[in-house]
Specification:
Elements (H helix, E strand, L loop, with lengths): L9 E2 L2 E2 L1 H39 L5 H21 L3 H24 L5 H16 L10
Antiparallel strand pairs: 1-2
Helix pairs in contact: 1-2, 1-4, 2-3, 3-4
């Protein structure tokens, strides 16, 4: 007879860590294309910096643009393989805190800040729980 706690975290026999894996891949599906566009289409040091400074009013726009590009492209790739997941989650949460509340909500309202708020929550989830299944740095 199995102990009462043996099945905790399982639904239909599926370990809850697979849910974290799906969240990781969903985050990466949003982050990687956004980071790619920042680096290779808009130009982090030109177009993105100008946008961050003039339209969004961020202080030190070049630093914010480079940080966002690195977190999104590099962090998205790290999330796919499950490496440094907690740290990437913390960086994503920090980036999307600024994006949600200082940029989107302030300039466009709550309805336009929803994706950023969800990404903030996903970043916190990764930071607090770790990568889940199918990860290099699985705990």
């Amino acid at each position: 007879m199995a102990a009462q706690g043996d099945d905790m975290g399982r639904i239909l026999g599926i370990e809850s860590g697979w849910g974290l894996f799906i969240v990781r891949l969903g985050m990466a599906a949003i982050l990687i294309p956004a980071g790619y566009l920042k680096w290779f289409q808009f130009g982090v040091l030109t177009g993105v910096t100008t946008l961050f400074g003039t339209k969004y009013g961020l202080p030190v726009p070049q630093a914010f643009a480079v940080a966002a590009g690195i977190i999104e492209l590099g962090g998205g790739i790290l999330l796919v393989i499950g490496l440094f997941t907690r740290w990437v989650g913390l960086l994503v949460a920090c980036e999307f805190t600024v994006a949600a509340f200082f940029v989107r909500w302030r300039l466009q309202g709550y309805m336009d800040a929803r994706l950023e708020i969800v990404m903030l929550c996903c970043g916190l989830l990764m930071f607090l729980t770790g990568p889940g299944r199918a990860a290099i740095d699985r705990e």
